[in-house]
Design goal:
By secondary structure, this protein is an alpha/beta fold. It has helices at 21-35, 48-54, 93-96, 107-125, 142-147, 154-158, 178-181, 188-191, 204-211, 220-225, 236-241, 278-288, 312-322, 337-349, 362-371, 387-393, 404-409, 430-446, 448-460, 466-480; strands at residues 5-9, 39-45, 59-68, 71-82, 85-91, 131-135, 160-165, 173-175, 201-203, 214-217, 246-248, 298-306, 327-335, 354-358, 374-377, 397-401, 423-425. The chain has a nine-stranded mixed sheet, with helices on both faces. The chain has a six-stranded parallel sheet with strand order 14-13-12-15-16-17, sandwiched between helices. Adenosine-5'-diphosphate binds at residues 20-21, 24, 303-305, 332-334, 360-362, 365, 384-387.
């Protein structure tokens, strides 16, 4: 029997381009699926950064016209194979060779083009996978396009679709004109309500939810949460229609990239057996940021997009109080100006214990995961979260809010049984967080054997892709029988 083939289509993916956890998933799940016997390929846009860093290594694949609505242009396609996964890159210099990945006025046209170009690529290659697995709004219209625009071909009609929601907060909502201009579809899909979302608008994500055979999201708790008004972002009624085809499959991390014994970015590699060597990374980070070099002080790390989602308004509310303790904070991230400004303020107010690096920095992220004792992630909502998985794997205990994937992946410390891999709180009050932070401090300073036990439990927890990749394979098998 030939291998089952799955085509991933996404707006970012490692090792080529990353702004957040989606790229981690696209860079690691296909690789694991290949290991487990699937044929997996990935399509990405050829962004400026990829053009600059990787283009020279690519092989040319094909060029073809893409025509749909107001889109009339040429796509060039290149490829590279990484760890058994074939990556295709769709080149359109005007649309993709820009400073940022998202946030442009013509995003509907850019990702409309990307999705049509992906379908055209399948025709050009005569490659029709068993399953197309799309991710987030940027690729969510593909199941719809295959079953409408491209349905003149039997091969498109028979492809099955899995659509994964990584973050329901971003839904690809555009003026209804985009139905024609960006997707090349007529207004009947607005008029009958299928594509319609809010007044005068359509949502790409809604099309993915309605037209995919199975809809998944990245943790079981988030799969439940998005059916409620609180987390549903007005999409809960649409999701309700697909309740029986909606599954939560928790993310894993790439054990090759995130390996504290072989991580090139660390001054001192370490493992559970040599955990005392972890502190050399702490001393190096303290030196790098001009903080007192003290291996005993509790070092709190954060690596994150700085947005409301991540709970930073809770943090800034009580940060002055958190800094009263014998602690140091090192924060890496960028995002909303208010949060960046608040962190700059704390850096100036507490230069001896608070360090902030504004920006995106891969090596520094590795160093913070390795150097810290506690990793703070008080998200208001979190579909899965990759950062808490990395920190556990690096023996850095996460302190999280019990929501979405954080709830599913961080069993909290139980002072009696000593179970757990970190600390968690549930309420939305900054003082709920402070209480658990105090428990973490107390444990760190006064019950060091408990702290060591939590580290052992965190570092031996299975946060790999092995089990979740199997669940995806089961899902692919179920729809392709
Ligand atoms: P999200 O995708 O919502 O941003 P995740 O926890 O799923 O959150 O994934 C975030 C990923 O991006 C992690 O791999 C994290 O290490 C990385 N990351 C976030 N901010 C930065 C940054 N400023 N510099 C380097 N890596 C970052
Ligand atoms: C999104 C979510 C994050 C998740 C990631 C990968 O960015 O915010 O929780 O881990 O996608 O699935």
């Amino acid at each position: 029997m030939s291998k089952k083939s799955v085509l991933f289509v996404a707006s970012e993916g490692l090792p080529f381009i990353k702004t957040g956890g989606l790229a981690d998933v696209i860079g690691s799940l296909p690789k694991e699926l290949v290991k487990q016997g699937m044929d997996v390929r990935v399509v990405l846009p050829l962004y400026l950064k990829i053009a600059v860093n990787n283009h020279a290594d690519f092989d040319y694949v094909s060029s073809f016209d893409v025509r749909a609505g107001d889109i009339q242009s040429m796509a060039n396609v290149y490829q590279q194979v990484v760890d058994g996964v074939t990556f295709y890159f769709i080149e359109h210099r005007d649309y993709f060779e820009r400073k940022d990945l998202y946030g442009y006025d013509d995003d509907a046209m850019r990702f409309g083009f990307f999705q049509h170009a992906t379908c055209r690529l399948l025709e050009a290659l005569h490659y029709f996978p068993d399953v197309i697995h799309t991710h987030d709004w940027h690729t969510a219209a593909i199941p719809f396009l295959c079953r409408t625009f491209y349905s003149y071909r039997e091969e498109f009609r028979t492809i099955k679709h899995v659509f994964t929601i990584h973050n329901l907060a971003f839904q690809g909502i555009f003026n209804k004109q985009a139905l024609w201009s960006a997707l090349g579809m007529d207004y009947s899909y607005y008029v009958d309500g299928i594509a319609r979302f809010h007044d005068d608008c359509i949502s790409f994500m809604k099309l993915g939810i309605l037209y995919a055979d199975k809809v998944t999201t990245v943790s079981e708790t988030y799969a439940q949460e998005i059916l409620t008004e609180e987390f549903g972002e007005h999409m809960e009624h649409v999701l309700e229609l697909r309740r029986h085809d909606l599954f939560g499959i928790v993310n894993g991390i790439d054990y090759d990239t995130w390996n504290s014994q072989t991580d090139d970015h660390l001054v001192q590699p370490y493992s559970l057996e040599t955990i005392q060597q972890k502190k050399a990374n702490k001393l190096a980070l303290q030196a790098q940021f001009g903080l007192a070099q003290d291996e005993h002080v509790m070092l709190v790390g954060i690596v994150s997009r700085l947005t409301w989602q991540k709970g930073f308004y809770l943090l800034t509310e009580v940060l002055n109080q958190l800094l009263q303790a014998h602690v140091q904070f090192v924060i890496l991230g960028n995002g909303e100006t208010d949060i960046e400004n608040a962190f700059h303020y704390f850096k100036h107010a507490h230069p001896d214990k608070f360090a902030f690096y504004q920006g995106y920095n891969e090596p520094l992220a590795h160093q913070i995961y390795a150097a810290s004792d506690l990793f703070l992630m008080p998200s208001m909502f979190e579909p899965c979260g990759i950062s808490q998985l990395i920190s556990m794997h690096y023996g850095t205990l996460p302190l999280v809010r019990e929501t979405g994937g954080l709830r599913d992946t961080v069993p909290p410390y139980n002072i009696v049984t000593k179970e757990g891999c970190g600390f968690s709180f549930w309420g939305k009050d900054a003082y709920n967080m402070k209480q658990v932070y105090d428990l973490a401090l107390d444990t760190y300073y006064n019950r060091p054997e408990d702290w060591q036990q939590l580290i052992r439990q965190a570092m031996t927890a299975d946060v790999s892709w092995t089990a979740s990749a199997k669940r995806y394979i089961d899902l692919y098998n179920e729809i392709t029988y």
